[in-house]
Design goal:
The chain is of the alpha/beta class. It folds into 2 domains: 4-380, 3-Layer(aba) Sandwich (Alkaline Phosphatase, subunit A); 392-493, 2-Layer Sandwich (Arylsulfatase, C-terminal domain). The chain is 27% helix and 13% strand. The protein contains 14 helices and 14 strands. The strands form 3 sheets. Strands 5-4-6-1-7-8-2-9 form an 8-stranded mixed β-sheet, sandwiched between helices. A 4-stranded antiparallel β-sheet has the order 11-12-13-14, with helices on one face. Strands 3-10 form a two-stranded parallel ribbon. The longest helix has 31 residues, at 264-294. The model is unreliable at 1-21 (pLDDT under 50).
Length: 502
């Protein structure tokens, strides 16, 4: 029998004990927004205060090298929900709604007899209605916020307490304000916060559906800027305890203009605000997990905890995602099923699109007819896959970028021809093609571009990126036959979303 120390080694599988469940297992799928994997105690960060996530990691399997397939909310979430790369799901930019005809995890679980619900921030870009995307009970996005505003009458906050200035106005006010450099709380107490309200709605769903198989997506808005947290958590972190990451000399031209005037003190305050928001998020995860335990549902519930993508907190001069650096791409993934999945750590490279197929398999639901991932189920059944991933591929089509990460290398390619519309414009909005290559073994901070020194590695990883696009893109048959490697990449990286809103 493996010890926990042996389990945490490089190959670290997760063992599932054979025991028949009295009924199909439930699914509780927890999603955070802009939560980078490194802002967790269980990821080795002693400054992060995440006791509930740390406990969940001890009780379950933590995938320590798990990556999103797009470092922006809507494409990442809908890729995760459909099991397809963002360009195949038809969602590659922020405003695009997911086509209701697309297959989803919820639809597949409905076929298996599950009652389905989603509460919180799902980025569907459509008003919720019963049945949308296979969800029986959706309370999502704007409707979730309106329900909170209508149903919760907040207690007054003493005027002597410095709080955030409302409304939140990103890009319209200075970055230090909408990034909460003052590390100020939202002007509400914990009981009146939106996240706490959404957890209460989720708890009620658990109570009402405890006697039938259910699948619940609970997606909180934290820790997305302005890094909301309640009044009780003010002063939890001293901004001066944080050392903002340094930018490399080569970063200067690509740092978005909106971040250029942030001072060191601003940067420290932004980091403190984010860590405070993560702590508030963690407390709410603890509440829903405690509710699951109180209802005696925990032993027959598969719990998944992840994030749509990560976030840079000063890395390379940036305070956002929308790029291919590690803090923006690597996300938490913890899977727990008490008594069925043995705790441990998996260090192999894994992607968001690998998760959906595994969940459908573990829950006995029909598989996706089209899936682009490699199921994580083998790890959850006590063995390493015959062919574990040797790389991950992610994309940010708003700026026509694609990324490949191997255990050793990080490759970034950008067509450089598109003037980005996401608000993060640089001094060179259309700089032309560029390539970056980093040796992650020697340069984990991704500071030294080695692309000019390793042309053969660049070509190999270009082919890897192109291979993924050719295998998954719905317009692969239209690729120009005479295109060069770079022209072929440019052909695929153009956004093609139908941007009409429902």
């Amino acid at each position: 029998m493996l010890t926990r120390r042996q389990f945490g080694a490089r190959l670290a599988p997760a063992f599932i004990r054979s025991r028949s469940a009295p009924r199909p297992p439930n699914l509780l799928f927890l999603i955070s927004d802009d939560h980078a994997a490194y802002v967790m105690g269980c990821d080795g960060n002693p400054q992060a205060l995440t006791p509930n996530l740390d406990r969940l990691a001890r009780e379950g399997v933590r995938f320590s090298s798990h990556y999103c397939n797009s470092p922006v909310c809507t494409p990442s979430r809908q890729s995760l929900f459909t099991g397809q790369m963002p360009h195949a799901a038809g969602v590659t930019v922020l405003e695009t709604p997911l086509d209701p005809s697309k297959p989803t995890l919820a639809k597949q679980l409905k076929k298996a007899g599950y009652t389905t619900a989603a509460i919180g921030k799902m980025h569907f870009n459509r008003p919720p209605s019963p049945g949308l995307h296979g969800l029986d009970h959706p309370l999502t996005d704007g409707a979730a916020t309106r329900a909170w505003q209508q149903q919760v009458k907040p207690a007054p906050v003493d005027s002597s307490i410095p709080v955030q200035e409302l409304p939140w106005r990103p890009f319209r006010t200075p970055a230090r304000q909408w990034l909460n450099a003052a590390a100020a709380p939202y002007p509400r107490f914990d009981a009146d916060m939106r996240g706490t309200f959404l957890v209460r709605q989720a708890a009620r769903f658990l109570e009402e559906n405890r006697s039938r198989p259910f699948a619940l997506w609970l997606s909180l808005f934290e820790p997305h800027s302005p890094f909301d947290f309640p009044v009780e958590d003010r002063g939890l972190f001293d901004p001066l305890q944080f050392l903002p990451p340094q930018a490399a000399a080569d970063d200067e031209w690509q740092i978005p203009r909106i971040f250029r005037d942030l001072t060191v003190r601003d940067r420290q305050g932004i980091i403190a605000a984010c860590y405070s928001s993560v702590h508030f998020l963690d407390r709410n995860w603890g509440r829903i997990l405690d509710k699951l335990r109180q209802l005696r549902l925990d032993e027959n519930t598969l719990v998944v905890c992840t994030a749509d993508h990560g976030c840079c907190l000063g890395h390379h001069g940036r305070f956002e995602k929308h790029c291919g650096y590690e803090p923006a791409l690597r996300v938490p993934l913890i899977v727990r099923w008490p008594g069925r999945i043995e705790p441990g750590v998996v260090t192999d490279l894994t992607e968001h699109i690998d998760l959906g197929p595994a969940l459908l398999e573990m829950l006995g639901a029909p598989p996706f007819q089209l899936q682009h991932g490699r199921s994580l189920a083998p790890y959850l059944r006590g063995r390493r896959p015959e062919k574990p991933r040797d790389c991950i591929v992610s994309q940010y089509l708003e700026n026509e970028e694609i990324y490949v990460r191997t255990p050793k290398w990080k490759f970034m390619y950008c067509s450089g021809r598109r003037r980005r519309l996401d608000g993060y414009e640089t001094d060179h909005p259309a700089p032309g093609r560029y390539v970056r290559l980093f040796n992650l073994e020697k340069d984990p901070g991704e500071f030294r571009n080695l692309a000019p020194d390793h042309p053969s590695v660049v070509r190999e990883l270009q082919r890897t990126a192109l291979g993924r696009l050719r295998a998954t893109h719905p317009e692969a048959a239209a690729e120009p036959s005479s295109a060069s490697l770079e022209d072929a990449l440019d052909f695929y990286l153009r956004p093609r979303d139908a941007r009409t809103q429902a």
